[in-house]
Amino acid sequence: MTEFAPWDAAAGGALIGLAAVWLMAANGRIAGISGIVNRLLPPYTDALLPDRVAFVVGLVVAPTIVIAFGGSVVQTISDNPVLLVVAGLLVGFGSTIGNGCTSGHGICGLSRFSKRSLAATLVFMATGALTVYVMRHVL
Amino acid sequence: MNANVSRIASSLAAGLVFGVGLTVSGMLNPAKIMNFLDVAGTWDPSLAFVMGAAVIVTVIGYRLSMLDPKPLFETKFFVPGATDLDARLIVGAAIFGIGWGLGGFCPGPAISALSIGAGGTYAFVAAMIAGMWAGRQMGKP
To answer: Between chains, do A43 and B136 touch, taking CB under 8 Å as contact?
Structure first.
């Protein structure tokens, strides 16, 4: 069980939205994390590697700031390393060939009313729910 | 200030705020993602509130920022132009969703959670980067 926390969820979501708006208003870019991270890898097609590294540094440092201000982070992660590695491979590969993940398609894409992002979001929500259903209620 | 420095600092700020949002919303906890996806079990609707609030802010903010002819630190807005629903998009999203359901991590929370230091996060992120590398080898659509 995890506690449904609508206010924390909405406040955090609003901050994510602000960050996405900022990256567009200032840098003219979509805040898609999979795209930012997979472009840390070669081949490089532009000169924005420092921007991407900076964004990722911000992302990594952020939880320590929340904790410094008295926040806490609760995590329950699978203790099965094989499952986590398979999950990571699928997330990395799928988001790269599908051109986006929860942020790029699910937040930025939906906010631009992109038909591709709506389709991608419906598909990954469906296969995600199906996977959890099979893992928790079938196997 | 040098234009490149401003742009890079701006990117850092966006990453920070994004990560604070992920942390505050509880999305660094894979169990919350899996419980959101578990509509037939211990359903936790939190993720819908995170996405809903983010989309509302972004819809309005994108509209307002694009009233300007160009971004603060760039020459234009780089917005994806593709509109066709190709197999690559759908297959990629389907594969991503399976991994998301298995581990409860998507790229943003997994990267942010590196600083929390759980061993499972490192395993996931290392594999995710390998998967991204494999995806990159398949070229652009």
So the answer is: yes
